[in-house]
Amino acid sequence: MSSRRLSQLVQTSLRSVSPKHAFTPSRTWASLRTIQSAHIHTPSRREAPSGNRPFQRHGEGEIEPSSIDSLSPPPALPLLSPPVGYRPLVITDDDIVRYIQPLYHRGWGIRISKTQPPRFVPVLNKTFKFRDDRALLDFVASVGRQMVEANHHPTITFTYNKLVMSLETHQAYLPSTSSDGSREIIKTRGITLKDIHMAYQAEHLYDELCEETDWDWTYPIRPATERPTSIHDLVASWGNVLEGSPGHVGEKVFIGAKQHHQQFLQHAAWI
Question: Residues annotated as region Disordered (predicted)?
Fold first, then answer.
């Protein structure tokens, strides 16, 4: 979705939201300003869904033993370290364990899409579901304000009451080792703390909206291939996608993705 189209949707949503579903601007902006110094709000526990499917109800503090490798998620998302410097670095193993794994319990995953842009590069990805299209547009408006404040632009697609958000940093950097053994910074694409910050802010806004609209829903935990626990796991899954993909998507796109994959191979070896 283009920035112009998203801005139009945000403006339309802001003009049309009803008092029942509307966010208070001061409340929303205050939440965004304090997001780095406070835990994400977790709604009260509700009855867990029955059956053996790997599903989790929104706001649950636990996941059924049969799901997500029998892991029990923390009651709230952890505090985030603020990004350091003007060059956002790609995630490390520690970032995955500390910050991304808690998102797995809320339906997030790291996807490498063959068809949806950006193609053949890892993205932090989630499908949000809403009570109705009005609630969805309220969320789009809030995320739009967040995007402007952060100057960071996720890929967003939606239909009726479902919204898919994909996050990656177009100008990311990763430490490498040059031929003479000294460290250098190389430019690439990848998931950074900027993306994790936006995912956490989106979760915060979604929690608020679910309470505003009395909405509770059950979402699937992503497959293990979309829940890497290290850069090595991520690189392996990425390589499998590239190896089994034809080049009909466009030589430039495919070659670029392979170059980014090679850079991450160096990153995985270095860490």
Answer: 40-74
Region of 239 (left: φ > 0; alpha: ψ -120 to 50; beta: rest) is alpha
Instruction: Provide the token pair at 164.
Output: 């898919």
CB 231, CB 268: distance < 8 Å: yes
DSSP 38: S
DSSP string, 118-150: STTSEEEEEEEE-SSHHHHHHHHHHHHHHHHHH
Return the structure tokens found at 26.
């001061």
Q: What is the pTM of this model?
A: 0.70
SS3 state at 178: coil
Q: What residues contact residue 231 under an 8 Å CB cut-off, 6+ apart? A: 91, 92, 93, 96, 264, 267, 268, 271
Q: Which residues contact 181 (CB under 8 A, 6 or more apart)?
A: none
**223: helix, strand or coil:** coil
- Rounded CA gap, 100 and 104, in Å? 7
Dihedral (CA of 256, 267, 167, 62) sign: positive
Q: Tens digit of pLDDT for each residue in 182-238?
A: 556 778 888 999 999 999 999 999 999 998 888 877 677 899 999 999 998 998 888
Q: Which residue has the tokens 């796109």?
A: 253
Domain extents for the chain?
3-270
The secondary element (H helix, E strand) that includes residue 241 is helix 231-243
Six-digit token string for 6: 């998203």
Q: In the chain, pLDDT over 70 holds for what percent of residues?
A: 58
Nearest CA to 124 out of 100, 156, 94 is that of: 100
